[in-house]
Amino acid sequence: MTDNATEQAPTFETILYENPAPHVARIVLNRPAMMNAQDTRLLYELNSAFNIAARDDEIKVVILAGAGKHFSAGHDLHEDPRKVDYSPYEPVGTWCGFGCEGAEGHFQREKEIYLGFSERWRNFAKPTIAEVQGACIAGGLMLVWPCDLIVCSDDARFMDNTVDMGLAGAEFFNHPYELGIRKAKELLFTSGWWDAQEAHRLGMVNHVVPRAELPEFTLTLAKRIAKMPLFALKCTKEAINNAQDAAGRSTVMNAQFALHNLGHSHNMMKYGMMIDPNSEAAAKSKAAAYNEKK
Ligand code: ZN
Fold first, then answer.
1. Over its length of 294 residues, how does the chain's per-residue pLDDT go in tens digits?
2. Cα 251 to averaged position of ligand 1 atoms, centre (Å)
3. Are strands 157-159 and 207-209 parallel, antiparallel or unpaired?
4. Cα(187) to centroid of ligand 1, in Å?
5. What are the φ/ψ torsions at residue 63 (nearest 5 degrees)?
6. Ligand 1 centre and the CA of 110: distance in Å?
7. Are the C-beta atoms of residues 92 and 116 closer than 8 Å to each other?
8. CA 266 / ligand 1 centre spacing (Å)
9. Which of 152, 202, 208, 232 is buried deepest, with most CB atoms within 10 A?
10. Measured in angstroms, how far is the CA atom of residue 118 from the centroid of ligand 1?
């Protein structure tokens, strides 16, 4: 990291920013006690960490990892979006209005911090590698899938349980591209798990390695890429992303995002809450809130 970037690096509460090797940044989700669940703070801090890596001309490759046993439990369902104080955060998009009432506020919040951030990180110019262990659930996929390469440990497992919550898949709808059409349907319809080996078979991950070797393997891969000229890496990434976008990916994403938010509105009209209260996630969230109060 350059001295200039070091001076600019803010202190994060939920993110670690490391330089494990020359030209390599390692950004670590650091809420292990919460299985790295993503609240508003974590997502804005993660976005700031990506900005540091973008602005530092010495950095060529970014690794995204999670502290503890699990990569990420997804979005933090303990956080009430209506009670979030947005004053510490600088908006990244222009929709804003996160505090507005009704579907307006919720749509705009999700457009910024879920679809907006994940798409922004997918278009992050330098190569990125996700380093994944343990559980990676729903919103967790929205951090992993935007990365260019994915390395996971043999104990990694993945799930998008948003259909069980009464929603049309998580907000960053990369499922058809990561899993293929039939498996995307099955895994969403069932809200079921798929393991590291299945993820590899489907082409969703580049490598599966023993848990103990995960950080070293990922860093070795990052160091190998970091030997290449940065401008060529950026141009290659853009070229491949363009191939996917030219086939209509962004249109697919936006259409699903509207359907996802229709689900939130339906749940709110029918049940008075954003997710179906009969879902397993809602039951767990209620149980956790009850235990916290006791
Ligand atoms: Zn949502």
1. 444 444 455 689 999 999 999 999 999 999 999 999 999 999 999 999 999 999 999 999 999 999 999 999 999 999 998 899 999 999 999 999 999 999 999 999 999 999 999 999 999 999 999 999 999 999 999 999 999 999 999 999 999 999 999 999 999 999 999 999 999 999 999 999 999 999 999 999 999 999 999 999 999 999 999 999 999 999 999 999 999 999 999 999 999 999 999 999 999 999 999 999 999 988 877 666 555 554
2. 18
3. unpaired
4. 18
5. -100, 135
6. 6
7. yes
8. 12
9. 152
10. 13
- What span, in angstroms and rounded, lies between the C-alpha atoms of 165 and 191? 9
- 257 CA distance to ligand 1 middle (Å): 8
User: How far is the centre of ligand 1, averaged over its atoms, from the C-alpha of 5 (Å)?
Assistant: 34
* Helix%, strand%, coil% for the chain, nearest 5: 50, 15, 35
Domains of the chain: 15-283 (3.90.226.10)
pTM: 0.94
| Ranges assigned E (strand) in 138-203 | 149-153, 157-159, 193-195
